[in-house]
Design a protein that fits this description.
- 2 copies of one chain form a homodimer.
- In chain A, about 30% of the residues lie in helices and about 25% in strands.
- In chain A, helix 4 packs across helix 6 and helix 14 packs antiparallel against helix 15.
- In chain A, the strands form 5 sheets. Chain A has an 8-stranded mixed beta sheet, sandwiched between helices. The first copy, chain A, has a 5-stranded mixed beta barrel with strand order 1-2-3-5-4. A 5-stranded antiparallel beta sheet of chain A has the order 12-13-16-14-15.
- By secondary structure, chain A is α+β, with helices and mostly antiparallel strands.
- Chains A and B meet through helix 3, helix 4, strand 6, strand 7 and strand 8 of A and helix 3, helix 4, strand 6, strand 7 and strand 8 of B.
- Strand 23 of chain A pairs antiparallel with strand 23 of chain B, so a sheet runs across the interface.
């Protein structure tokens, strides 16, 4: 062992001990007659002192050449520090070094290894192994491990069994694009990497495994948006002999447990909301309910005058911004510009200032009188001093726009406190959603989701109205989990495939094994999957997942550190029976 | 919830309770006036009774139509059984059913869902979801989960951090064949699936992560021998600031912990043996030391007579088979046939019977006298009543042949007790091994393994004699783990690549990121990886891993249940910029 203690361990009670430490040189201060070195390892920082009076001369001389990030092993005595540092746990002591070895030298790192580094994203990714030495990244990875352990121990105690499902599976055109793997032994054929272990976990239920989970990598070959990764980690769960209520209860338990254990937050209220209600109230199926600003639908109180913009709109809807009446004209113009950005896409915004004296001043005073505006204030819940922002247009679009504005304003008003946690179940999702591109219905969740029995009759007449036994777990405006009760009989599954545009032959070729399995005694079952990268980030109080992943890929799906993907040689291609077609 | 209790839960203390159970019909016995059904779930079997006297008539009628593996939900009362079954925990009670639902019907399963099934391997794999309902498979998967949890909790307590490393990495021609993944976004380029997280765990050490582990899937595109899988699971570990001794101590601790917790076995002695000693004593680098039959090298006592076969041999070596003197001529001839099988490849076998009266009878009495044979007996440790089996030839071949014979005889003699556990460290492996096919040296472990400093001078003169800081953990004749202290400086790594036949350009192209990393302050480090599938199987007392894997592939790398790999459509190929080349 290269050390007797870690660099985070020694305290005043260790004074006079002879110890050996190993670690990295964080920084040196050379006063000529005295040199201090901050030695760092995973566990902390300990100050070393080289002192002309008390340290052998040649050791002091050697110490003068230490550079940042040199790896050294030192032996010495724990002594009391003259000027104590209250900010670090080892701040009462320092090590009077008697000898040391340089275990490895280091080039000057391309960015500073400090909590606040001078390195940009690109260079940090290229030298990720140096980035990981920084506390924010190192602590994020250790935090991730803690969360994973807590999840595993909780679910194991609840009798869940972690079962490893295969990574080399079969490609299915449904859903996102698969990554595929050419098979050398089966010429011309390909495996696919799983987008999720969905069918395997269902087969485990058919196999009687009853309560399954797995923390598992999944793969999607999508064009990457910011903060998406081609490989990501899921907490994948499934249970048999359960109804929706059972699943919600179990995973409410897991969520409470994690928030209690990790954040010491007790969740008093774990509300549920239908998809329809979430869309109506927040314009969004993953509302952040840590703050109000609920939607007020204004059609009945805004379409009775000569204002054509509103009269032509499918939906007129507003929110009350707390304290917004004090915004200047310029600030409001900026808000209007914000909603008109292409990313939001509103054509304009009507506003009403709710003055402290009870009067209203709006951008549409030409059309609406004080009584109208008072009705708007009532519908949006605006008080004196608030600003009402009103958007109008096609129902789905205007909801999305106002939801974006609501989130933006909450951010600006500091209402999205990362240390406050408000989970929410959104239930009764639609079974199908219309896809403009392909002009047909797609499964909103996936094709194995069961429709609500009372809605099955609508499958032919009003497919978009059929509700599914599907639910999302939302935390602070992020979808952290989603799942459903599954279909467990062959007939319903065939009906579903039919409505999704599969021919019976296609359904059999791709999912025949699952439909066969349903004929051999499949129990009722359902499950949920959590996006683990996101869950960890949110629990860690962050919005971006990248620092919670040891070796993330960039937006082109590249690992810039190892420089992958890369070319492979002809020999390899030939063995795989493929050639490039560029 | 479809049940108030599981089928393994109810006891005599529950009598008179109203309960609901769900599960599968294991079997039915219909006596006309009374029907018994064994209801099974993951937790056990509970007997149901339908009784004309006490059960509604229509319920009894419906029960008559229950087939094997139907999924049902029953409600009834716990009553005392008339004829108790001491063999199952629920054997004192049965359920007097008042009503039940058929949750799903089942076709007759293609094999019996019993501990001893009538289904062959192929059909069980095709219907793996039915196979998993059988106790031997179900229990193996649950056992695997328990072992994984114990590993994780032990290592976490020892301050190891589980870090997820990427699955989409870069192909390297060193080692086994990679599975590759064409990148759509990076035209003409490929990811590779990891054969192990080797370089990433080393980079984590450079990153200061200090103690890393991961239970992780790895991939090798090899021609599959029996009991090998293209995807397999590893417990992958790495530590910084350690020497070989530290690693052995830590993972000795893990092994002791697992054997104690899982098998209630205390390991008194955890021996270590050099590779050279293992080869000399057992002809094998993973000796099963649960039994003796150590090799006796006979050159000095067998090459002084006119027996040309021995005189021409590089090595003459024998083992003493306990009690083997009583084998008949026919039995011995069969043994000789066994060693001459192509899989073993010996040309013949000399034997010596050590008679109870102290005399010897051998197949080479023409050449050797009683004194010679007495010396052989002494060298092989043979006692009166034993049989000495002697092989001769080229040293490596003859050791492998005698090792195979030793294992076979131990199996026949019942010396390989699956409930006895004898771990062993084999240390000081050679750094390089000669490859006949490519006519050059390969890394025996991998190119990142450090040579013993005192042997580096031999790299040019006698590369085959250079020993590495490499070690294997052997359990009952199986290699369950292997690792090494790594190279951690750029110069030694470059030297190693050079000796492995890499040009500096090739080394840079493939492992430049690692050699760069070594320049920024890499600490001394080393690690180990355990084959988790094999470890679990051995702890479970089995020799084959297949039942410890939920969805294994067959020897052609196929998943016969989902029928993968499979063809993919032209559209997909085109997007990936590849075409088939059959």
């Amino acid at each position: 062992m290269y050390r007797s203690h870690s660099c985070g361990e020694l305290r005043a009670t260790d004074i006079n001990k002879e110890i050996t430490l190993s670690g990295w040189v964080q920084k040196t201060r050379d006063k000529g007659f005295m040199i201090w070195v901050d030695l760092r390892d995973r566990y902390g920082i300990t100050q070393l002192i080289f002192d002309e009076q008390r340290t052998p001369k040649e050791v002091v001389e050697k110490a003068k050449n230490l550079g940042r990030e040199f790896v050294i092993q030192v032996t010495g005595t724990v002594i009391e520090r003259e000027s104590k540092n209250k900010n670090i746990p080892t701040g009462e002591i320092e090590i009077l070094v008697s000898e040391f070895n340089i275990l490895n030298e280091a080039l000057v790192p391309p960015f500073t290894i400090e909590d606040e580094t001078d390195g940009g994203e690109d260079i940090r990714m290229k030298y990720r192994y140096l980035d990981i030495r920084r506390n924010p990244v190192k602590n994020s990875l250790m935090f991730r491990h803690q969360v994973a352990m807590k999840v595993r121990n909780y679910l194991s105690k609840e009798d869940f069994v972690e079962v490893e499902t295969p990574y080399l599976i079969k490609s299915t055109p449904e859903g996102a694009r698969d990554f595929v793997v050419p098979s050398r032994m089966n010429e011309g054929q390909f495996y696919a990497l799983p987008q999720s272990p969905q069918t395997f976990k269902q087969l485990l239920m058919v196999g009687g495994m009853d309560k399954y989970f797995q923390i598992v990598k999944c793969f999607r070959d999508e064009d990457l948006r910011a903060d998406r990764q081609p490989e990501f980690t899921q907490i994948d769960c499934e249970m048999a002999f359960v109804e929706q209520e059972d699943i919600l209860t179990i995973f409410e338990g897991l969520t409470r447990h994690l928030l209690k254990e990790i954040k010491n937050v007790e969740i008093a209220d774990f509300p549920r909301m239908t998809y329809a209600e979430a869309m109506k109230t927040y314009g969004n199926d993953k509302p952040d309910i840590r703050f109000g600003m609920k939607f007020g639908e204004l059609n009945s109180v805004a379409q009775h005058k000569d204002f054509k913009v509103f009269n032509d709109a499918e939906l007129v809807v507003g929110i009350a911004v707390p304290g917004g009446a004090s915004y200047t004209r310029k600030e409001i113009d900026k808000l209007i510009d914000w909603v008109r950005r292409p990313q939001v896409g509103a054509l304009g915004m009507v506003y009403v200032k709710c003055n402290e004296d009870g009067t209203f001043k709006s951008s549409v005073d030409k059309f609406y009188d004080q009584e109208d505006l008072a009705n708007w204030a009532k519908t949006t819940g605006a008080n004196a001093g608030d600003l009402i922002c009103v958007l109008s247009g096609q129902i789905n679009k205007v909801r999305a726009q106002l939801s974006a504005l609501r989130m933006e304003l909450a951010e600006r008003l500091g209402l999205r406190n990362p240390e406050e946690f408000a989970p929410l179940w959104v239930v009764d999702f639609p079974l199908l959603e219309w896809d403009e591109d392909t002009e047909r219905y797609h499964a909103m969740h996936h094709p194995f989701t069961s429709p609500k029995p009372e809605d099955i009759a609508l499958l032919d007449s009003k497919p978009g109205d059929v509700r599914a036994n599907a639910y999302d777990l939302v935390l602070n405006g992020n979808e952290i989990g989603g799942g459903s009760i599954r279909i467990h009989d062959k007939e319903t599954q065939a009906l579903m495939f039919d409505h999704l545009g599969f021919t019976p032959e296609e359904a059999k070729a791709q999912f025949g094994f699952l439909m066969d399995a349903f004929q051999y005694g499949a129990p009722p079952h359902g499950g949920i999957a959590f996006g683990f990268d996101r869950l960890v980030a949110i629990l860690g109080g962050q919005e971006t997942i990248r620092d919670y992943i040891a070796f993330p890929k960039n937006n082109s799906g590249r690992d810039v550190m190892i420089d992958a993907p890369a070319n492979i040689d002809q020999e390899q291609l030939k063995e795989l029976n493929i050639k490039l077609d560029l």
